[in-house]
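If you are new to this repository, start here. Below is one unmodified record pulled from the training split, so you can see the exact layout before writing a loader.
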Amino acid sequence: MLGLYISVFLGMLSETSMNITLPDLMNDFGISSGTAQWMVVGYMLAIGVVLPCVGFMLKWIKAKTLVLFSLACFLIGAVICTIAPSFPVLLAGRIMQGVSTGIVLPTMYAAIMRVFPLHKIGAANGVAGLVIMFAPVIGPTIAGALIGAFSWRAIFALFAFVAVAAIVCTALFFVTPIERTRPNVDVLSIIASAIGFGCLVAGVSLISDMGFSPMVVGLLVVGLLVLAFYAYRQLHIAAPLLDLRALGVAAFRTPAIMISCSFSCTLAFMYLVPQELQRGMGLSSTVAGLLMLPGGVINALCTLAAGRMFDRYGAKKLVWIGSVLTVIGGALFFAIGVSTPVALFLAAHIIVMVGIPFIQQSSQSAALKSLPGRMAADGSTIMNTMQQVCGAIATAVATCLLGLGQTNYAAVGGTNPAQGFVDGSRYGYLFGMALVVVVLAFSFLLKENKEEPQLVPVHVDIEKLAA
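And here is the target side for that same chain:
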């Protein structure tokens, strides 16, 4: 699993270290915040487009080959970003990195479901979560230090070195645990998946720059219609690209929704916080990164603990604890101002970083545990697709709310850009807290499953079929 762990760590490092670089990218390329956010949204858009196809690809392609291909994409993308002369070139390299992460993320969880016994799924997901959450622990800090010492380009150079290490470990150690069944290829489903998810995320992301223009509305309508066709087709063909029957299992559907909401809350906060520290409180990127380190360390430790606690206590109680803590921490973010002592920020950030893993890890373990082993790859892909698409949408919504808050501040006569950014950030924090309330509401529908689930067998009359 070492190669996969490093690969997923690299993907999450890339996803969570970009927020702190956005002010520098805006200055270097002369772009708006709405354009700069495509470094975050474009990455997640690529993940969201690729993810629905991974479960199907694993049924056709040897997992080791697929992972090595994805890491090669990441390495090439990192090199392109390091030397990018313009923002479009930078974004192109960034999207290649998103394709890689979209492949390795569900592959890791599918491998876990093949390697570990059912009664250890919580602990196994806790270890995987620790690997994933170690990236946000050090990502902003390393990014801030590299920007302070060199420039934002050094971050992508670091990604390239880590990608090489992941390629070596995967080539040496990874053993494919996933069987290949080689079902029929439904090209129409692949096209519908790419168009539907792509148009939906792109439409939402463009709202901050273009408003509800005809182009934006058109993208949203096309995305929703194509996704509806895609879902219908998956449920009515013999060899679906993604087995959406998993969403018909309430014990899987409910925690999957909770994971998507909590992940969206996390990304909205992580998009706003580093920028508020720099543009609202006037701190350097290096200091901002260091201030995010304590919360990140605690988050990683709580992720591991939450995975192990799930095996003993189940999901519901842990979700309640995590939801309450996240709301308290989010409320403290409202008290942050231009001249607020950093101690208040540290307290708010640490409380949120304690609460989120109790929601994420327990919900994820509950969701995967509710499915039979042969649906694990599809279930993992569904969950990760929902997370990344919802996360991209949440980041775009946070950007829109940030702009709305800044506009309202200026409308009442405000002239301090730093205070305007702080006021705008509070709109985004309110959105994140609303998502946690949704998680809390769904937690009452959680059902604990202690037995390995089985699909209901379908009776087939062989003689009649032969005739």
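Two things worth knowing about this chain: The radius of gyration is 22 Å. The first helix runs from residue 2 to 16.
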